[in-house]
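R.M. (postdoc): so does anyone remember the format we settled on? I'll just put the structure tokens first.
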């Protein structure tokens, strides 16, 4: 049961990052020196993904340019002998035809974005990665692909009880190692009615039946077409598993999560970590 394709929904408006996201896609915001979307694509590559499908919207052309050749830049880098930089920009180009773009004409929800990619998917499982859920450490999708045995699978983690209203929340029904069997899932429940604190973060592997449910176009929480609802509708027919991934997740769709990610990723870089730690300890923490 090989997972060879991944969908990257990048059609959201990114309103929490205005004005930065007025002309720049949220997914192009950098963590240290790399855009969020590139981390997601690299995670997919590490999981063995060979075809990359971006569901884009207005103002997202920077993403297409980012994953294509820039002849002018490459020529200039050659002329200036900047070979390290040249390798960096050429190394991220994927083989011709392996990257495709589908336009989501209106931001009608994550489920709608996924449904827009339906013609790119045959009768096969497909991965979904949300770039604003950034994972430091072991690539979560690799762990999922390794454990995947059909049906639907989501990455899960515990969240504080007062935050259930920001996530899809599962009803767990037994665990084995990293795997959690899912009895039910609900989108953005208030803490009083949440079935658990186990939340879905932006990594999924879905089977073709989910597209059939998405095609019904039913609106859910927030008046949007929710992926969660179609996953829930498939529970009677196919296995549904959660995977407690081992990396550390940062919610880069929020300003605080984005700032934390920048610090954590910079600290993990040998050329930045020591100096940054020194500044944080000597200057920032000492300010009280
Ligand atoms: P968010 O809920 O974070 O929405 O979407 P958003 O519009 O990107 O950001 P805010 O809340 O306005 O700041 C979660 C993921 O689903 C994608 C987004 O691009 C993001 O990866 N998405 C959401 C779509 O592709 N299309 C949609 O219609 C909605």
């Amino acid at each position: 049961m090989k997972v060879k394709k991944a969908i990257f929904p990048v059609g959201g408006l990114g309103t929490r990052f205005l004005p930065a996201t007025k002309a720049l896609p949220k997914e192009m915001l950098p963590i240290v020196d790399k855009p969020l979307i590139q981390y997601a694509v690299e995670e997919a590559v590490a999981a063995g993904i060979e075809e990359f499908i971006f569901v884009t919207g207005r103002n997202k052309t920077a993403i297409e340019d980012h994953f294509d050749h820039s002849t002018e830049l490459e020529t200039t880098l050659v002329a200036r002998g900047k070979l390290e930089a040249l390798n960096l920009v050429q190394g991220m180009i994927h083989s011709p035809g392996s990257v495709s773009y589908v336009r989501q004409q209106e931001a009608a929800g994550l489920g709608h974005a996924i449904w827009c990619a339906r013609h790119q998917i045959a009768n096969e499982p497909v991965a979904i990665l949300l770039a604003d859920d950034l994972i430091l450490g072991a690539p979560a999708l690799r762990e999922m692909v390794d454990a995947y045995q059909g049906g639907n699978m989501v990455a899960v983690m515990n969240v504080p009880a007062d935050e259930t209203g920001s996530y899809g929340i599962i009803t767990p029904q037994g665990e084995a190692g990293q795997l959690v069997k899912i009895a039910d899932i609900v989108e953005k429940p208030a803490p009083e009615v949440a079935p658990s604190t186990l939340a879905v973060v932006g990594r999924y592997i879905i089977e073709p039946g989910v597209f059939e449910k998405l095609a019904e176009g039913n609106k859910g929480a927030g008046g949007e077409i929710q992926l969660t609802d179609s996953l829930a509708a498939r529970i009677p027919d196919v296995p549904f598993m959660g995977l407690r991934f081992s990396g550390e997740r940062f919610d880069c769709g929020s300003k605080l999560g984005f700032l934390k990610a920048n610090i954590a990723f910079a600290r993990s870089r040998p050329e930045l970590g020591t100096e940054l730690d020194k500044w944080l300890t000597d200057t920032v923490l000492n300010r009280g």
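R.M.: ...and that's the designed sequence above, right after the tokens. Also worth knowing: The longest helix spans residues 270-284. DSSP finds ten helices and 13 strands in the chain.
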